[in-house]
Write a structure and sequence with these properties.
This protein is of the alpha/beta class and about 140 residues long. It is built from four helices and five strands. A five-stranded mixed β-sheet has the order 1-2-4-3-5.
């Protein structure tokens, strides 16, 4: 029993030290509120990117049906700290349940928004989503 407790403590300590070491390796980031224009409307969104100059892969992040909550901003920041430019699009800026066609156009305009940035490698743009955003990801990913 004593050895199991000791082994568990060692595993926890190793995981903690690995987590601390990983945090030391994370990149410095910049964040900002941005507007993505789509069909004549400005969608309030959140952007995080590595602070160092370079050309990075990018991700369009589509939040859940509950909105662009703080957890999605944190996730966006964490992706950026790993070397991605991430745009969390506010697809519910004007209505809670927009049509699939409207969200698709916003997603395409978000890709254009990222492609126009100097710090984005336009050949490496991905899409991810959670809950309703996961549904949109599955709907649109085969099309881009």
């Amino acid at each position: 029993m004593r050895y199991k407790i000791l082994a568990t403590v060692l595993v926890v300590l190793l995981l903690f030290s690995a987590s601390v070491a990983a945090q030391d390796e994370m990149m410095e980031i910049i964040t900002e509120e941005v507007s993505v224009m789509s069909d004549g409307q400005a969608y309030e969104s959140y952007l995080a990117a590595p602070a160092d100059a370079g050309s990075y892969p990018a991700v369009v992040l589509i939040h859940s049906f509950n909105g662009l909550q703080a957890g999605y901003r944190t996730m966006t920041d964490l992706f950026a700290a790993e070397g991605f430019v991430v745009l969390a699009i506010g697809w519910q800026t004007f209505e809670r349940g927009p049509s699939d066609a409207l969200v698709e156009q916003l997603m395409l305009d978000s890709i254009d928004f990222l492609s126009a940035r100097d710090d984005v490698d336009a050949e490496r743009i991905g899409l991810t989503g959670f809950c309703a955003g996961g549904r949109y990801t599955m709907l649109f990913l085969p099309q881009i």
